[in-house]
Design goal:
This protein is α+β, with helices and mostly antiparallel strands and 76 residues long. The chain has 1 helix and 4 strands.
C-alpha cells in the first residue's frame, strides 16, 4: 500500500461532489491540481476543497478524511 494525497470537493451542504479520487505523490502537486479545479469550477456548486492524505493500493484510493491538511475555499 502506498500513501499519498488526494482532494475532496464539497458543495454548500458539505456533500462530497467528486466520486473519483486522484492519487498524488506530492503534496504540492495535489494542492496545485485542487486550486486549478477551484479556479475553473465556475458555477458547479463546489465551495470548498479539502486536501487529505490517502492510502492507495493500485486499484483504489482511500482518503483519510480525519486529517485535513489544507482547505481551499471559494472566494465570495
Amino acid at each position: 500500500m502506498t500513501f499519498g494525497y488526494t482532494y475532496i470537493e464539497r458543495n454548500i451542504t458539505g456533500r462530497v461532489d467528486n466520486n473519483q479520487f486522484e492519487h498524488f505523490t506530492s503534496f504540492i502537486d495535489c494542492c496545485n491540481a485542487a486550486q486549478k479545479i477551484m479556479d475553473g469550477a465556475g458555477d458547479n456548486g463546489i465551495v470548498k476543497i479539502q486536501i487529505v492524505p490517502c492510502e492507495y493500493d493500485e486499484t483504489r484510493c482511500t482518503p483519510l478524511v480525519m486529517t485535513v491538511l489544507k482547505t481551499i475555499v471559494r472566494p465570495h
